[in-house]
Design a protein that fits this description.
Number of helices: 10
CATH topology of the largest domain: D-Maltodextrin-Binding Protein, domain 2
Shape: globular
Bound molecules: pyroglutamic acid
Helix content: 40-55%
Distance between the termini: 66 Å
Number of strands: 11
Strand order of the largest sheet: 7-6-8-5-9-11
Structural class: alpha/beta
């Protein structure tokens, strides 16, 4: 009787405070990119789909724009369980394992169709690697093709000499170095500020990220080099995952599959639109000239060779699986 009385008093109190009970919980989901970016919108739709499918027993709340954790804090936060779930640019983890850099190898998979194949080819190895770090990938979504943003026209890699370059991962830092530029790795939340203060005057990124920070305020050119298609992944902490019952896990997996499909479609359908927005805001958008392309191909060969040295036989095997698809 007393127990019943206590329950009847404490349960509504716990619910009204949003306190976790055995049957219902809330997952905070940190995102690095702005709320209006399609990656964040896609993540918000995923979160809403999970919340709805589970009738709120698992509620996922997205926190875009680095507001909960900045880009470089998200993977460690999910790994250690500080955040149960989060989204991170895969290749930003390149220093942890060469496998994370597979999708930024220049000219390996430069179209969305090839990028999708590469994603499928790498999935089993990625899940294994991520599991060894205590996390699981739920889905991954590409960025539109990458281009070089500059203030001045460039005709060759030599024109990038000493130019201050914003890198978003070890591979783009290496690319800059091989062009003779001066790379600094900067998270997207700091991007407007570093361009505004002149700490960066160029970068490689998609039309999407340029559009988000209104990059036409700082640079004039975007060379559409079509060299790779990097991806963001949504990862979940394995302990948090294993605590979910099977039905809930299945709701999450279904929502993740939908988010992966809609994210790829969105990236593809927006790629051209983003390039048009750069042009509409006064930038010159063009393919790289012959010399610049030849230089980039050479740099790509060096980066691929360096990657294979690090990734070894398993890296080579992955590439041949991809090429046979
Ligand atoms: N935007 C992200 C990574 C790739 C992209 O297109 C960024 O610049 O941080």
């Amino acid at each position: 009787m007393i127990r019943k009385l206590l329950l009847s008093l404490t349960l509504p109190l716990a619910l009204s405070l949003g306190v976790v009970n055995a049957d219902s919980q809330t997952w905070d989901m940190p995102l690095a990119y702005s709320a209006t970016n399609y990656q964040s919108e896609n993540a918000a739709a995923f979160a809403a789909a999970v919340t709805e499918a589970t009738g709120g027993s698992l509620t996922i709340v997205t926190h875009p724009d680095g507001s909960l954790y900045k880009g470089d804090e998200i993977f460690p936060a999910v790994r250690t369980g500080q955040a149960p779930i989060g989204e991170r640019l895969i290749s930003a983890l390149g220093n942890e394992d060469p496998l994370f850099e597979l999708d930024t190898l220049p000219f390996l998979a430069a179209s969305f169709a090839d990028a999708k194949k590469l994603h499928e080819a790498a999935k089993p190895a990625m899940q294994k690697l991520l599991a060894s770090k205590g996390v699981k990938m739920l889905y991954a979504v590409p960025w539109p093709p990458q281009g070089i943003y500059t203030k001045n026209p460039i005709n060759s890699a030599a024109d990038m000499k000493n130019v201050k370059f914003r890198a978003y991962n070890p591979a783009t830092a290496r690319l800059a170095e091989l062009m003779g530029a001066v790379p600094t790795t900067i998270e997207v939340t700091e991007l407007s500020q570093v361009f505004a203060t002149g700490q960066a005057e160029s970068m490689v990124s998609s039309g999407s990220t340029g559009y988000d920070i209104e990059i036409w305020q700082y640079v004039n050119f975007w060379y559409d080099i079509q060299a790779w298609v990097p991806k963001n992944m949504v990862i979940v902490n394995l302990d948090a995952w294993n605590e979910l019952d099977e039905a809930t896990q299945n709701f999450v997996l279904n929502a993740a599959a939908e988010a992966e499909a809609s994210g790829w479609a969105k990236a593809e359908s927006l790629a051209q639109w983003y390039a048009e927005q750069l042009t509409a805001n006064g930038m010159t958008v063009q393919p790289p000239g012959e010399q610049l392309m030849a230089d980039l191909k050479k740099i790509g060969d060096i980066m691929t060779k360096e990657w294979l040295e690090r990734a070894g036989a398993s890296g080579e095997a992955l590439i041949s699986v991809y090429k046979s698809m």
